[in-house]
Specification:
The complex is a heterodimer of chains A (491) and B (700).
Chain A: H1 7-23, H2 29-50, E1 55-61, E2 67-72, H3 74-97, H4 104-123, H5 127-146, H6 151-181, H7 195-198, H8 202-217, H9 228-235, H10 238-264, H11 266-269, H12 273-294, H13 299-320, H14 323-354, H15 365-368, H16 370-384, H17 390-404, H18 410-438, H19 456-474, H20 477-490
Antiparallel strand pairs in A: 1-2
Helix pairs in contact in A: 1-2, 1-4, 2-3, 3-4, 3-10, 3-14, 3-19, 4-5, 4-10, 5-6, 5-10, 6-8, 6-9, 8-10, 8-12, 9-10, 9-13, 10-13, 10-14, 12-13, 12-18, 13-14, 13-17, 13-18, 14-16, 14-17, 14-19, 14-20, 16-18, 16-19, 17-18, 17-19
Chain B: H1 5-25, H2 29-50, E1 56-59, E2 67-70, H3 74-96, H4 103-122, H5 126-144, H6 150-181, H7 186-195, H8 200-217, H9 225-232, H10 235-260, H11 265-288, H12 292-317, H13 322-353, H14 369-383, H15 389-406, H16 414-444, H17 465-483, H18 489-496, H19 514-539, E3 540-543, E4 546-549, H20 559-643, E5 657-658, E6 663-667, E7 673-679, H21 680-699
Antiparallel strand pairs in B: 1-2, 3-4, 5-6, 6-7
Helix pairs in contact in B: 1-2, 1-4, 2-3, 3-4, 3-10, 3-13, 3-17, 3-18, 4-5, 4-10, 5-6, 5-10, 6-8, 6-9, 7-10, 8-10, 9-10, 9-12, 10-12, 10-13, 11-12, 11-16, 12-13, 12-15, 12-16, 13-14, 13-15, 13-17, 13-18, 14-16, 14-17, 15-16, 15-17, 15-19, 16-19, 20-21
The chains are: A mainly alpha (491), B mainly alpha (700).
Chain lengths: 491, 700
Amino acid sequence: MRDYILLFPIFFPMLCGFFMPLLQKKRFWETVLFALLAVETAVVFYIAFNVDGDMAVTVWQISGMLSISFFCDGLGRIFSCLISGIWLMAAIFSMDYMKKEEHVGRFFFFYLISLGVLLGISYSANFMTMYLFYEFMTLMTVPLVLHSETQEAITAGLKYMGYSIFGAGLGLIGFFFLCVYGSSTEFTPGGVLDPSIIAGHENVLRIIYFEMIIGFGCKAGMYPLHAWLPTAHPVAPAPASAVLSGLITKCGVLAIIRTTYYLFGVDFVRGTWAQTALLCLAVFTIFMGSMLAYKENLLKKRLAYSTISQVSYVLFGVFLMTPQALSGALLQVIGHAIAKNTLFLSSGAIINRTGKKYVSELTGIGKNMPVVMLCFTVASLSLVGIPPTAGFISKWYLAEGALDCSIGNIIPILGIFVLILSALLTAGYLFTIVVKAFFPGNGFNYEALSKKEPGAVMLFPLIVLSACILFFGMFPSGFVNFFTEIFSGIF
Amino acid sequence: MENNFILLFLVLFPMAGGVVSYIIGRFNKSARNYAADVVVLAEFAAVLLVFGQSSVFHLNSFCGLGINFESGGIRGVFTVAASFVWLMATFFSAEYFKNYRNRNRYYFFMLVTLGSTMGVFLSSDFFTALIFFEIMSFTSFVLVIHDESPKAQKAAMTYIAVAIIGGMATLAGMFFMYHSAGTLNFSELGKIISADNGKTPYYIYGVLIFTGFGAKAGAFPLHIWLPEAHPAAPAPASAILSCVLTKTGIFGVMALSCQVFMHDARWGMFILSIGTITMFLGAFLAVFSVDLKRTLACSSLSQIGFIMVAIGMSGLLGEENSLAAAGAILHVVNHSVIKLTLFLCAGVVYMNTHKLNLNDIKGWGRDKPLLKFVFLQGLLGIAGIPLWGGYISKTLIHESIVEYIAHGGTHGGLTIFNAVEWIFLISGGLTLAYMTKIFAALFVEKEKSPKKENHSLKNDCYMNKVSSAVLIICALLISVFGIAPHATLDKIAGVSYGFLGSVPPDHSVHYFSLVNLKGAFISVVIGAVVYFVFIKKFLMSKEAGNTVYKDVWPVWLNIENSIYRPVVLKILPTIGYAVAGTLSKALDFTLPSIIDAALTVASFLYSLFENLLLYGLIALVKVIRFMCDVYSYGVQLVLYFLFNYDDISYDGERDFREDAYFSRYSEDKHGEITGFRENLTISLIMFGIGVVCGLVYLII
């Protein structure tokens, strides 16, 4: 009976979502929204920290093999805490931000439902459940992209939907094969493949694995299905683009981790052509994202390209299939989610207060809104990987994991080279903004300067997230120890 | 060993002090200045407290691997030197920045830089060093860009770019090093590497790690930021950059050369060659410079080269490297004190005139004996004149080269080392020449042009008492070091031998013996020749009785502007973008067209199938009916012949129509069916009957 609490975080926000359009005219709706999300976050953290053992609950047994069921393992704990915590911060930010937008009720309707769906993905116990919520995630977040209802937004939304459904479809193909070749499709550490059945069919299954990862890689922005990301993220309102970039890409990562480590199993893929090919794709995506971001002038689009690059750091770690690298990947999941949210929310604050969208307009912005740009700077440092921020730690583990990798010397060293190169490019596309913002030059007109710092409601999430970046960077050992526990089954 | 929290205090206290002084500065400017003074004074006191006291501090799992501090030995020398420089620079800052904007920012970042610098000097492994090294790079960036002039902005961007590239290279080196050796502790790495025979990968990792530290020290070919950033920064910041931040790089190089690759001749040769190039290049650039602070910056470059030569020699000399090791650390100390003096003098000049070009400030110091004295002390110190500090360390370095040659060194042949010795002496000579050039410009030449304002400030007006005291202390220290080396410098060297991998020498060096004075004498002669023959003739000219300093250095001969910037900012991004952009866009463009093509194919196939089905059905029906027709005619024919059945005759007279039910009939004008001939059903029945009949016949 205790385990049924697991359903609360999933369905509570969905239910609440329905009331948002009704409440939007009321004066107290912000308070209500905050209270709902606070309860939600509290429950998620309670489940993660205070409940011993892994909970499991089956909602609906459709047939012998198919069921809708949830469980809460280590990975689920990490992702659910990350998602709900950051969602709360982004929601606090959006209370102030969305005042200037229309259709606020509709926005929060989908915003809350998406939260429930994302938590559904992190708690999914089998492929069927995950796939269900995965498709739901696409459908529930498309309205967030469409929010402004401009031609650009509609085009972007359709592109997003098209790519996502195509990607999820590729993932679904694998499901049918897994039903045949696996003992079940429950997520089991070490994989579900049945050695007696797959004998002789290994290569077909590896092709299936490869195309499944390509499909799920779509959400994570991995080459070759990355193109929706720089189109869709910038057009959404800032709180939505923050969670799109920071968290929804991570659900793609979660699906890939589940597929790799919990369905196929590392031993099946490690050292094969599939691993090599995926590593190459991830490494190329890291480079490509950074390079395109370096050349981009629209701030939010630059950040979207940066997401492509940074999430592929995670994928690089996942595909290396060593404990160190997977630790690095999970640290990068956390670090990037927090940092990218900070960056998107900062850029949202800038747009909200000044209407400036292009990087070239941001000269001297640090004098107008110093606290916002300070948070932006901390997040930038983390993305580049400067100690003592979270980005540095993940890079350290990724590189050490790469050197442990048994796939030969060339790809790990190439990977490390690209990590370093991408860090330099990241410095190139983020620090130039910071430097121009804080050091506008001695021709800057200090007399015309006006304080445009947003209010406490907007600053609070930015400051909390920046503090988290520094804290996780300085004291990562708690996470690393926890990861080691998770990894006991899957390696 | 017990954790000594003073070490943590040394790092965190200035950072906290920076925050406090920032907050104070929001309310009261002068209180902020005093707060900063108190912070650096307390820091200096704390550093003296742990000087020579060997203790450790561990903070496990901080930033992943944990940080490890150590004190005592050479770290005491570095930290005392650093906090002394900071003390002097901070006291001097109050007057220098009187009319500046953003002073709060300056003080905050200066104090945070102090803390992180302490972190680097106290670190006992590369991981700790890197963490504080990176923090230091970013906070000192703010000091460089402080003026926010276009020149400062460009210089600061170069500085941060080199710092980031270097830092990333170091990080990459550490990845490999940690993976291969399992530790990043300086001395443990040394043990592991000396026990390992297959050293080649370690050299590569070492060079990668060296890149970051070398770049910070100003080693060729990543020296480009130094001659730009030092002049662009405000004078106290230039002093800090030149005296301390470059030394953090030197500290890293020492850790690599004297701990990790201890007594390794090949590594020593590598450091020596880079040091020699840097040493000569810096001096050569300084001779051509017509900017006061740029000359000093290039001079720093050259002096860093001297230090690196000493470090390289200590690697080459192996066990008997005490001369070279002492030379290295003593030159670090001397250079810090001397360059502090000189940069603060330049600060005084800039504070009053806001100019640094030699032609603009010519003769400004003629009537200022105090400044003249202080600057002269700096000149004599850095040029290596006996009885001033620089002579002692330069003599030691020179003697180490001579010693190597005398011992018939085993590496690379002697001619190279003779060349190194001569480059060393020539660089020493050039030092004297360029210092004489700026001294003469500032204090000897007369400004005869009537257009320019007459600098007739009273002696005590151009700087206040605090700044004067700071300058006098620095200047006297140079003499103290030079006159009583055994009581001062030898002691400093004494505590440093442990880290530098050498044992104290049996007897102290006779600094003022004839053989040692010879080297200084040769340098002085070279310097005089260069000054009077080259600088006077080619770099100065008389126009209307007025001396003009010419900038003859060709503009295009600038490794930064003609190679690094175009390559890093234009060529590489263009290539990278071409690759990434094409591949990224290619897919985004082709995917829709692929989908389009697929749709076309699918709809074609679909319609094809649909048509095929329809036409196929019709054709099938026609075939069946034709067969039925043939059959029924056949039957009728048989009937006709057998029974005279006559039904075919009126076939041509009537107009038969066909409908959708495949029946054939005729109708009249009103559409009523008048004659029914046949339809498919009847034909099929007939066909069926016929088949049954046939079968029955066959069976029977």
